[in-house]
Design brief:
By secondary structure, the chain is mainly α. It has 16 helices and no strands. The radius of gyration is 23 Å and the shape is globular. It is a multi-pass membrane protein.
């Protein structure tokens, strides 16, 4: 979402003189809220370094076999699905601020359960709790940020949400390089705990307070965030309307709904979540000596290209970026599949070579260079990931204020 959107540039409360607010506390409030997406990203990326660590664990610590490892990575999505439904209910009833405060509880509890885990079921239960928190945070945080931001910074702060998700994934990869799974789970408690602390001092969004007929509190929140309340007017009555199934017959509703659901479905079916959950395991299956380093390279590429996509999105256009994204992802996955095919059954293949191995003038196996084919194709897949998708969905949402889908972030 950017300030150029006509619907979006209509501020919550509009000054008659047209002067833009200059409050800086809005950045602090936005940072506090984006700790939710950061925790979300950390939870997504946690399984990548944790699974190999748990598979090497010695008794009495829990140890994962291949089937349990698969569930350990995937069960977070079940919790996130439930969290998305719960978040949609909480955000309109408990409010944006309280929803963010509440979602920090399953984040901390889930990582605490993982830290204290004595068997596989405790590990899966902890992952399920963090997934529940992910679903709530991914829905509530963008709503909170969009409603506290004034138009001049709304696009900037909105783009920080997805950026913080991928930074959280990278943080998990980096920390997993030096920490084993228990201490990595302890580190996972830090961002949601900090969010809980900071959000206690942040106000509820003025828009939500106005919908609850708490105008005095809304003006106080506005002054805290934007630095002024003089001469500001309330949004028109009836701006917030409920959704009814009968509205799906309207072209302005069902067209963006079908497009949005289709895009989300194709994005999930692309396998991007599987890459995030099992990055290190995938490289270990390819028998890389430096699977942790390869995972970190993938995480860095994802952060860089998410930032680049946010910068060029308005000029290049969402549809063009999505089309290019699809082509790059098809090519990169084909190349990665070709790597596995070429190295299958070859005892001296490139997968046994360290990424940082020095170049030698002596003859080596011709397939050594294939190590970089694997890393390069994975990086291309992540670079071509649909970073423009969620911004496009946000714009589809703006086509009609009653469009029935909520935006749930995914990497």
């Amino acid at each position: 979402m950017t300030p150029e959107d006509p619907e979006e540039t209509q501020p919550l409360l509009e000054p008659p003189g047209g002067s833009a607010p200059r409050g800086r506390r809005v950045f602090l409030a936005a940072f506090a809220a984006t700790l939710g997406p950061l925790s979300f990203g950390f939870a997504l990326g946690y399984s990548s370094p944790a699974i190999p660590s748990l598979q090497r664990a010695a008794p009495p610590a829990p140890r994962l076999d291949d089937e349990a490892a698969s569930w350990f990575g995937a069960v977070v999505t079940l919790g996130a699905a439930a969290g998305g439904v719960l978040g949609g209910w909480l955000v309109d009833r408990a409010g944006r601020k309280l929803s963010l405060l509440l979602c920090s509880v399953p984040f901390v509890t889930g990582f605490a359960v993982i830290t204290a885990a004595q068997d596989v079921w405790m590990l899966l239960g902890g992952r399920l709790l963090t997934g529940l928190a992910c679903g709530v945070a991914s829905l509530v945080a963008p709503v909170y940020i969009s409603e506290i931001s004034y138009p001049a910074v709304r696009g900037l702060l909105g783009s920080c949400v997805q950026l913080m998700v991928v930074i959280g994934i990278l943080l998990a990869y980096l920390a997993g390089w030096v920490l084993e799974w228990r201490w990595l789970a302890v580190l996972g408690c830090v961002p949601p705990s900090l969010m809980l602390l900071l959000m206690c001092f942040m106000p509820e969004t003025p828009r939500f307070l106005l919908t609850q007929h708490r105008r005095q509190e809304a003006m106080a929140a506005l002054q805290f965030l934007w630095g002024s309340e003089q001469g500001w007017e309330e949004p028109p009555i009836g701006a917030e309307q409920g959704f009814h199934l009968a509205l799906l017959w309207q072209p302005g509703i069902y067209k963006p709904f079908v497009i949005g659901v289709s895009l989300m479905a194709f994005q999930q079916l692309s396998g991007v979540n599987a890459i995030m959950f099992y990055t290190e395991t995938i490289f270990e299956e390819a028998k890389f000596k430096d699977s942790s380093l390869a995972s970190i390279i993938v995480g860095v590429i994802q952060v860089l290209f998410t930032a680049v996509a946010a910068l060029i999105m308005d000029r290049a256009g969402r549809r063009l970026l999505l089309a290019l994204s699809g082509m790059v992802m098809v090519f990169s996955m084909s190349a990665f599949g070709a790597y596995f095919k070429l190295t299958q059954g070859s005892p001296g293949n490139s997968s046994h070579v360290a990424l940082s191995a020095p170049i030698s003038t002596e003859p080596v196996d011709a397939s050594v260079g294939l190590a970089w084919l694997a890393v390069g194709s994975m990086c291309l897949f992540i670079a071509g990931g649909p970073q423009a998708l969620w911004s496009l969905l946000a714009r589809l949402r703006l086509l009609h204020h009653q469009c029935p889908f909520h935006l749930v972030l995914c990497p």
